[in-house]
Specification:
heterodimer; A: about 525 residues; D-Maltodextrin-Binding Protein, domain 2; Dipeptide-binding Protein, domain 3; 2 domains; 5-stranded mixed β-sheet; 4-stranded mixed β-sheet; 18 strands; about 30% helix; disordered N terminus; B: mainly alpha; MetI-like fold; about 0% strand; globular; disordered C terminus; Peptide/nickel transport system permease protein (chain B); cell membrane (chain B); BPD_transp_1_N (chain B)
Chain lengths: ~525, ~325
């Protein structure tokens, strides 16, 4: 046994040495628990697909850290004065990984495919046609002005897919979804289901000198504990979408590992409490506001979230140019909370209890979910509200409860996805109250002024005016409190010391890793 | 031959019953795969949801879905995985070898070590080793398998970084076939030890009890009286009979071993059927889950058939005079 151990150890060390000397010098090994259904981001949203899809496919635009568009496949672009035409001037040297040149035909095909198949219907709904006067010009025609189009042209939302490969048959079943061909910085090599997928450098990438890496391997883990341990040991080089506060703290304190707590603001994951506004007593805004004043957010941010989460005060992610902080802040005030409940006619009974309610949470999230609701259970007792925590065994169970309105209050984590038209509107517009659909307006919130403002902001091309409309929307929604905003989700990224070009932009790791490089 | 055909018919019937029961049980779980897909997409339109439900036949009544499914199974069509967007059979065949490797290695380790420990402690039932085996088996048997796995991981992967934390082979790739085998073996050690730990306990207790029983039997006394050496008595005479309960148990345990594999594969990120089953449950991927359950049922049935054969080999009375010998199932009950 002893001998075997020595032998196994020796063999393993030998292997590691051999492997590192024989393989590419710029190889990045990423660990992730996200399992992509496939790699075609034109028909599938979510970060599991977006991360590889943005490496394999290029898109018209990229974005800077300050939310400004940067040329990518589009060298330049202009919007007509009436806002009904957006013209893209494409680069002429982009080719797909199979050698076929990328033309405006592919851009037109991709846009129409996304419009018809992508789950985010509002993203490209106003697009009527895409004209292709020549190979490097694509003219997008709109039914009405659609400022959200700009962020929708980001890598995470608008991969340009080759028409000659995806153009035939039912795209949902196209075999190239699992064997993708794009024009992005990395070529797809293989996907071993449940183990890993591998990408390699696209030597003919249309931007010279990029990417820096020779290959990317993403190893898929079934369990976060295991994944964090692998990072700690140095088995993997990078760990994106790290959410657990204890995991972040642990890796932050590990020698040889750095943690970036920034990145992914455009995805804008906000952790919040949502009310079933059709169910008494939560149909009364005073009750909802009272709970807002009763939550000590400082305690939540500092203690429960360990200081790793940013405050969230409204429906739009804080760094967005359209966000405002000029809204009700719900400063912690138990007396005010009690007074509001008194006003709502919810007087305490003999035991000091005003009413009993249930709180659900998305299973899996420790700090953002379980710990938060446990805190609320003891905290809300102070204003005479008895909380019963309802645990769901898995995600579908929770989703079923919430989407069939079988809940009082639930913790929820919802993404902005760039422009408010894509990810914010759905939670508040009354036309999106759709039973059975999770992440629709499951609060059943309906406010005519909110509907009006969101409709107007969706077509307003002047950014300043648009921000004004969204400002009023944010003020109303925060004051009405169908939702209490708690924090932005900390999406941290752990990486090996000495690595460079870490993807910490507004789309985080769901953007092309052009500058990522390994230590020499 | 006739009895073999009878057996085969009952096996086929059993498999059908298993499939139908599984299918109906799954319907009780709240939520369906389309809700999960839509959830991970971050929301979707009504049309897309309706289209997905229609694509996967989820809009039909349950009984119709079951009929369609059974009809397909007969032709060897296990359907299309809703979540992983590929044929279920491809998915399962990709994962099956990893699970079979893990099961075979765990069972071998458990049976060999368990039996040896059992024999030794049976020979000196009051000795130090016997007590040690008793305590060790009790601990191994009571500890939840995922806990054992996590502890081994912390000890032998984190504190003493001797073994890899995850996977079946280094994802960065290895050079030649010999290195590949060594790499897999290196990855295999901790999962095997974890999964075997419960069964070592079980088999050592079983072997100990049965050997104690057998060693006190008349024919052993006769053997000793004939002047046979202690070694001949133990291994030549006692062990044969002493092993029967172990073999019986082995066959019966196959189902549980698969259940244990779900946990071990999840803890060690082993790319086998168990982890796929776990992920399919979370994603309500019915076709995949049903496919896995079907294959698991097949594995268990085959294991039981093999047990019967092995049983007959160890104890020739069973093969030749079937009626008089107790069936293995009965013996275990």
């Amino acid at each position: 046994m002893k001998h075997f151990r020595k032998f196994a150890l020796g063999a393993a060390t030998g292997l590691t040495l051999m492997a590192s000397s024989a393989l590419a010098q710029q190889s990045l090994l990423v660990g992730s628990t996200q399992v992509p259904r496939h790699f075609n981001g034109a028909i599938q949203s979510g970060i599991a697909t977006a991360m590889p899809s943005t490496q394999i496919f290029a898109s018209p635009l990229m974005y800077s850290d300050s939310w400004d568009p940067i040329p990518y496949l589009a060298k330049s672009w202009e919007t007509s004065a009436d806002g009904l035409t957006v013209t893209l001037n494409l680069v002429d040297n982009a080719t797909f990984h199979d050698g076929t040149p990328l033309t405006s035909e592919d851009v037109a095909f991709s846009i129409m495919t996304i419009k018809e198949n992508h789950p985010f219907k509002t993203m490209l709904a106003p697009v009527t046609t895409v004209e292709t006067p020549d190979a490097t010009t694509a003219v997008i025609k709109l039914e009405h002005p659609h400022p959200a189009l700009m962020l929708a042209m980001s890598p995470a939302l608008m991969p340009i897919i080759p028409k000659h490969i995806y153009g035939e048959g039912n795209i949902q079943e196209n075999p190239a979804n699992l064997n993708p061909v794009g024009s992005g910085p990395f070529k797809f090599v293989e996907y071993k289901q449940g183990e890993y997928f591998k990408l390699e450098k696209n030597a003919d990438f249309f931007i010279d000198g990029q990417p820096k890496l020779d290959e990317i391997i993403v190893q898929i883990f079934g369990d976060t504990a295991n994944l964090v341990m692998a990072m700690e040991r140095g088995d993997i080089d990078m760990l994106p979408y790290l959410t657990g506060v204890r995991d972040i703290e642990r890796l932050d304190g590990t020698d040889g590992v750095s943690v970036a707590t920034k990145g992914g603001e455009a995805i804008g994951a906000i952790n919040w409490l949502a009310f079933n506004t059709k169910k008494a007593p939560f149909d009364d805004p005073k009750v909802r506001q009272a709970l807002g004043y009763a939550i000590n957010k400082d305690f939540y941010l500092k203690r429960i979230m360990g200081g790793f989460a940013d405050d969230a005060t409204g429906p739009i992610t804080m760094t967005s140019p359209l966000a405002t902080t000029d809204v009700e802040q719900y400063a912690f005030d138990l007396e005010k909370a009690k007074a509001l409940l008194d006003e709502a006619g919810l007087a305490p009974d003999g035991d000091g209890t005003r009413f009993t309610m249930t709180i659900d949470y998305i299973p899996g999230g420790v700090e953002t979910g379980r710990n938060l609701v446990e805190y609320l259970r003891s905290q809300l007792k102070q204003i005479g509200v008895e909380v019963e925590v309802r645990t769901s065994p898995d995600f579908p169970t929770w989703a079923k409860r919430i989407s069939s309105y079988d809940f009082d209050v639930t913790q929820d984590l919802v993404f902005n996805w760039g422009d408010p038209v894509i990810g914010v509107n759905r939670t508040y517009v009354s036309s999106n109250i759709r039973p059975g659909v999770i992440w629709s307006n499951t609060q059943q919130y309906s406010n005519a002024r909110v509907d009006e403002l969101l409709a107007a902001a969706a077509v307003e091309t002047d950014t300043a005016k648009r921000a004004e409309l969204y400002k009023e929307f944010q003020q109303i929604v925060v004051a009405d409190a169908p939702i209490l905003y708690l924090s932005e989700m900390p999406y941290s990224l752990a990486y090996k010391d000495g690595m460079d070009g870490i993807p910490t932009g507004i789309w985080g790791p769901a953007s092309p890793w052009l500058d990522v490089s390994m230590p020499e | 031959m006739k009895s073999f055909l009878m057996k085969l018919a009952s096996v086929v019937g059993l498999l059908f019953a298993v499939v139908a029961l599984n299918f109906l049980l799954i319907q009780f779980a709240p939520g369906d795969p389309v809700e999960v897909i839509v959830g991970e997409m971050g929301g979707a339109s009504d049309e897309l949801i309706a289209q997905l439900r229609a694509d996967y036949g989820l809009d039909k009544p349950v009984i119709v879905q079951l009929g369609i499914y059974l009809g397909k199974i007969v032709t060897g069509d296990f359907g299309y995985s809703i979540y992983y967007s590929q044929p279920v059979l491809t998915l399962i065949l990709q994962r099956l070898p990893a699970t079979i490797l893990l099961m075979i290695s765990s069972v071998s380790v458990a049976v060999v070590i368990g039996t040896v420990l059992g024999i030794f402690s049976a020979k000196r039932p009051k000795g130090l080793l016997s007590h040690f085996v008793t305590i060790f088996s009790l601990a191994g048997y009571s500890a939840p398998v995922f806990w054992t796995g996590l502890m081994l991981l912390i000890l032998f992967s984190s504190i003493i970084p001797m073994f890899p934390v995850s996977g079946m082979v280094s994802v960065r790739g290895v050079e030649g076939p010999v290195e590949y085998v060594l790499d897999v073996l290196h990855h295999l050690v901790l999962p095997t030890v974890t999964l075997a730990s419960i069964y070592i306990a079980l088999y050592s207790r079983l072997a100990r009890a049965s050997m104690l029983d057998v060693l006190g039997a008349d024919y052993i006394r006769t053997a000793r009286a004939k002047g046979l050496s202690e070694r001949q008595v133990t291994y030549g005479h006692a062990l044969r009979n002493g092993l029967i309960p172990v073999v019986t148990m082995l066959g019966l345990q196959m189902g549980q071993l698969l259940a244990g594999a779900v946990l071990v594969e999840t803890v060690f990120n082993w790319p086998g059927l168990g982890r796929l089953a776990f992920e399919s449950i979370l994603r309500r991927d019915y076709p995949t889950l049903l496919g896995i359950l079907f294959f698991s049922a097949v594995i268990v049935v085959v294991a039981n058939l093999l047990t019967d054969l092995a049983y007959a080999r160890i104890d020739p009375r069973i093969g030749s005079r079937k009626k008089k010998a107790p069936s293995p199932q009965k013996a275990a009950q």
